[in-house]
């Protein structure tokens, strides 16, 4: 039976769209490219949702008002964001949790201490995998049909209207409305190479990128919509949620546990054994996602986070043990860096430290003077053995190149919104995220626009159905 609404994708945004369309009375079919065991896309690796709130609410402490959320987003994006759509996302984040709970999502009690996010982020009990499993159970209970291992390679569009989807197996599925929520192109190595190109050292940086999430986000539909249907696009193809992760992480699906969280508590050096950025710029929820791009710009796309014993116990322990040495020269030799340059870098940094009242939970007054780059917070000499090093590579979570949209989530062609083709999640996140990232905002965007897209698609489909019935 032809569905009223076809949802292409299987992560948070797609599921939100499918659930909202079904609740609005539409017959819904969801196509997930991955096998059932790998369903959920990058959403399965998530942990939390950044939420606006004007007063303490259930699992959120204190207040995180709209203007502060907006200023945080403005800061990390450097102003490369659509304020109208950003504020829509922010406001929607304050009202979605009851709906999420109605579909089986549970939230855990507030976190405190070093994670520093109990005020701004609501954490899913069981993480993102539990969230997508809850949504799939709810979808199936409500009668949403789900097909796995059903990748869509192309869609038919006529005069800006969705007509049908063509699956890789040759099958054609028509529908009265469609929601595209099939992710970015971060798993497509050829496209990453094309986007990043070759640097002045003759390297292809993308060859050294690791993918934190799913292997199924190949960007096939995104490329098809942009190249073949000339859909309006937004964003820079080199911009992405990119984190510095353990260089020993797997190529795909390493997830949150591969992140290295001790960057702010020590120094980071490149292959030439030199520092290249302020390790103490801000708390990790606002600044952890700049480090992947910073490492991507270094020789060989590799760097090392260096700490001493004073930092132990103050950050989330990595999955893999670091390289351990009882002296800094020994550490340099173990990780293969030039010992003389490494020692000059560390000695210059240590001499520049102006230690005040150290507090890794606040923007403290421990800083450097007379060294470049400066370290503006949490600067303490690295002088207490044993010493540890963690090799870092760029870890891509999702890309920001996407389809331009508006507050109806409609795909646009020549600046005209389609009346039955909608987009949500990574495929449109670049409207809000031109660059940078702050923890939990990806799930805020996916949830907000997934719900809008599902509602709009159901309305378009049911309107079309009513017209056919009256004819």
UniProtKB/TrEMBL annotation:
InterPro entries: CobZ (IPR012831), FAD-dep_OxRdtase_2_FAD-bd (IPR003953), FAD-oxidoreductase_2 (IPR050315), FAD/NAD-bd_sf (IPR036188), Succ_DH/fumarate_Rdtase_cat_sf (IPR027477)
Keyword check for Nucleotide-binding: no
Co-factor requirement: FAD
Coiled-coil ranges per UniProt: none
Swiss-Prot/TrEMBL keywords: FAD, Flavoprotein, Oxidoreductase
Location of the FAD-dependent oxidoreductase 2 FAD-binding domain: 4-432
Organism domain of life: Bacteria
MF term (GO), any: oxidoreductase activity
The protein's name: Precorrin 3B synthase CobZ
